[in-house]
Design goal:
With 207 residues, the protein is mainly α. Helix content is 71%, strand content 0%. Helix 8 (150-168) runs antiparallel to helix 9. Pfam families: G3P_acyltransf. Pathway: Lipid metabolism; phospholipid metabolism.
Amino acid sequence: MDFFTNQNIIFYLLAYLVGSIPFGLILAKNFAGVDIKTQGSKSIGATNVLRVVKQTNPKLAKKLGAATVVLDALKGTIVLLIGLSLNLSYETLWAMAVLSVLGHCYSIYLGLEGGKGVATGLGVYIVLIPIPTLIGAIVWIVCAKVLKISSLSSLLGLIAVVISSVFINDGLNIGSNVPMYLIAFIILYKHIPNIVRLIKGEEKKVI
């Protein structure tokens, strides 16, 4: 079978290419006229959109930050939902999930640079392990309200997803938790600078 007519290969490419779309960068440039790749943490995620745009337009910053979270999550969710509708195997779906997160974190459109993968991870997890993801989302929201530190809240939410999934969805319908752990590892790896700042007490709060 030809490489580019193989359904799984097509969906792997689609997952990565859609995952690579830098919505935060696009929204900030088009609606606020700022390049978040050159300001703040230089990340393309919602937190940096919020921080950078807030300097000139606080009201717009909240809207763009929220829109970035939603769109970054949806770019993982939509491709998986299409795959589900076509009865792709769970092995294929989990591979697509990993590629979506890799796309966001290492975008082909940005020279393999990107964001931290939290929202896109949430987007793929909610399709494949919904109950643990809802638990993690609640932990994320509560911690964000109380701690006001985006990175720490995200990591605690991620840990909650992984731990609850081990008890609720152990095996992920494929007999292995490896894809879930791989996504979590990618997100943790991208957060290493944040973790270092947290240990030093230098991580900034989102106010």
